[in-house]
Every structure is written in structure tokens, then in C-alpha cells.
Design goal:
With about 300 residues, the chain is of the alpha/beta class. The chain has one domain (about 5-50, about 70-290). It has helices at about 5-25, 85-90, 95-120, 195-200, 230-240, 265-270; strands spanning about 35-40, 45, 70-75, 75-85, 140-145, 150, 155-160, 165, 175-190, 200-215, 220-225, 255-260, 290.
Length: about 300
């Protein structure tokens, strides 16, 4: 291949196509628990999600609920992936060896939200949210119907592999994926570029700016107890009876069960089997959709 401007332009187009094809075609899982929020600044401020009370009978003046935009802040992070290819390899028509690598760059860029969201989810046991409690906690403070403070739990306790019940029927989600700058690949293939002159190599670099954070803790219930019918039933009961701000009955619908790979068999038996271990009808069959997430910690 003759190293001409036209040839390099065609090469960049081919690599860009390979990158974007995999970027848009890669299956991701973060959307099961996270809502995507476009970001226009380095630091994005959010109101205290989930603290909206019920509708009230309109008697007299309106009661205005002001959303304080200082509930919590998520700061965007910057990510990159860069590869270099020898000028000689391009000259010797070795493009076919590197196109799959560029294709894979698109995949890892697409999967970055998965990596960030599921990693952040597991930090919920040790990281505070806007109410001063851990995201998964037994003592989230809410304002009761009479104005006094009450405690609400979204954590069953335990010390084993974590599993999660999620209400995935709402626009608001338990997690947030904050998207500041979508992935793109940039070439440094100008024959006058320093990397060409000094290292005799062409460079392609991908960049993405984004972050993951916690959303509405009310919509997810975590457990480190064994995944048994008894513990599953208790987790469902805790969610379906949960009260929110000013005594509002949240009417949660725990329709998604998320487990790591080590709990896949237990999850399948719990949600798919016709009968339980004792031979009785499995009353929990079909009560939730099972999602096995391989990025979750196994123990």
C-alpha cells in the first residue's frame, strides 16, 4: 500500500467504520438498573430522587414541593484507549490484522457503562448517598405522614454473594449512567505528526467522558443472605410494603431479580421451577425476570 493522503483517508474511514459498527452493535446490560442522563457540565447536580409525596386534595392554595438541586453531585470522568500501528505494517498491507483490534475498541467503549454501573452498584454497601446512609442500608430516614422521621430499609443483611430485587417499571432507576461525551475515535495519521516522524507509527485513540452514580435507593433491595424462597419472599414483602416521603405508599413492583453467576442455579430454580425442593407448588415461579450479571462479585 502506498502511503498517500488518499490511502490514509480511506484507512481512517475503514477504522472509523469498524469502531462505530461494534460500538452501536454491542449488547449492554447497564440499562437494567440505570437511567441514562445526558450531561453538559463536568459536575452534574441532582435533586433528592424519590422524595416526591402523593397527590393531595386541592383545598386552598397549592402545596409546592421544590426540588432542591443540591441533593447530590456526580462528577464526570475521562476514559481513553489508544493503539499504535507501525507505518511499515500499513505499507505492507497488514490492515486486516488491525481492523479487528479497532473493532474491539468499539466494543470496550460500548461496554464502559456496564463496567461503571455494576461496579458502582457494589459500592452501595460501603458508600453514602444523599441521605447520609449507605446506599444499601437498614436505616434510610424518611418523613412520615405525621411529619416525624421514620426509617426504611433496602438491605436484608448477610455476608454472602449479593443479589438484588429491582422495580424496573419506572422512568427513575436505582442507578444513573451520566453521559457527557459519547465515544469517538481520533486518528493521528498525518505524515507530519510527531508520532510518525519519531516513532514511525500511526496512532488511533478513543475517548469517552461519563460517570456512574446512585439514583433512587427505594427502587432496589439488596440481600447478602442465601437466595432461598424464604429470603426472597421477605425481600419482596419489604419492597411491596415500603413507604416513602410523607407516608406515601410507593406501590413498588419488584419484577427483576439480579444475581451473580454463582447464584444463577438458585435463581433459575426459584423463578422457573414448577415445584420447590419439598415437591410443593413453587408459588414464586414467574414472579420476576432473572438477570445474571457476570460483572458482579461472585462471593
Amino acid at each position: 500500500m502506498d502511503i498517500t493522503k488518499a490511502a490514509l483517508a480511506a484507512l481512517n474511514t475503514a477504522f472509523n467504520t469498524a469502531f462505530n459498527t461494534r460500538l452501536t452493535g454491542t449488547e449492554t446490560t447497564y440499562g437494567r438498573v440505570a437511567m441514562t442522563v445526558p450531561s453538559t457540565t463536568r459536575h452534574q447536580a441532582y435533586p433528592k430522587l424519590g422524595e416526591i409525596g402523593p397527590m393531595r386534595e386541592w383545598i386552598g392554595e397549592r402545596f409546592i414541593e421544590r426540588l432542591e438541586k443540591d441533593g447530590f453531585v456526580i462528577t464526570n470522568r475521562k476514559f481513553e484507549k489508544t493503539i499504535a500501528v507501525s507505518v511499515d505494517d500499513i505499507s505492507d498491507d497488514q490492515i486486516g490484522l488491525f481492523t479487528p483490534i479497532v473493532n474491539d475498541m468499539g466494543q470496550v467503549a460500548a461496554e464502559l457503562p456496564d463496567d461503571l454501573v455494576w461496579e458502582q452498584l457494589e459500592k452501595g454497601f460501603t458508600t453514602e448517598h444523599y441521605d447520609g446512609q449507605m446506599f444499601f442500608d437498614t436505616d434510610h430516614p424518611v418523613v412520615g405522614a405525621d411529619g416525624s422521621e421514620a426509617s426504611v430499609s433496602n438491605f436484608q443483611g448477610g455476608a454472602g454473594a449479593a443479589w438484588y430485587l429491582v422495580d424496573d417499571t419506572r422512568s427513575i432507576k436505582p442507578m444513573i449512567f451520566q453521559d457527557r461525551e459519547k465515544p469517538k475515535i481520533t486518528p493521528k495519521t498525518n505524515l507530519n505528526d510527531d508520532n510518525v516522524f519519531f516513532q514511525d507509527e500511526f496512532v488511533w485513540g478513543a475517548k469517552r467522558r461519563c460517570a456512574a452514580g446512585f439514583g433512587a435507593w427505594q427502587l432496589i433491595y439488596a440481600s447478602r443472605q442465601p437466595l432461598t424462597a424464604q429470603n426472597y419472599a421477605a425481600a419482596r414483602a419489604a419492597m411491596t410494603t415500603m413507604h416513602g416521603h410523607r407516608g406515601r405508599k410507593l406501590n413498588l413492583k419488584p419484577k427483576l431479580l439480579i444475581v451473580p453467576g454463582t447464584l444463577e442455579e438458585a435463581g433459575l430454580e426459584l423463578l422457573n421451577a414448577e415445584r420447590n425442593a419439598a415437591g410443593a407448588t413453587n408459588v414464586w415461579k414467574g414472579t420476576a425476570t432473572l438477570h445474571v450479571e457476570n460483572r458482579l462479585t461472585l462471593i
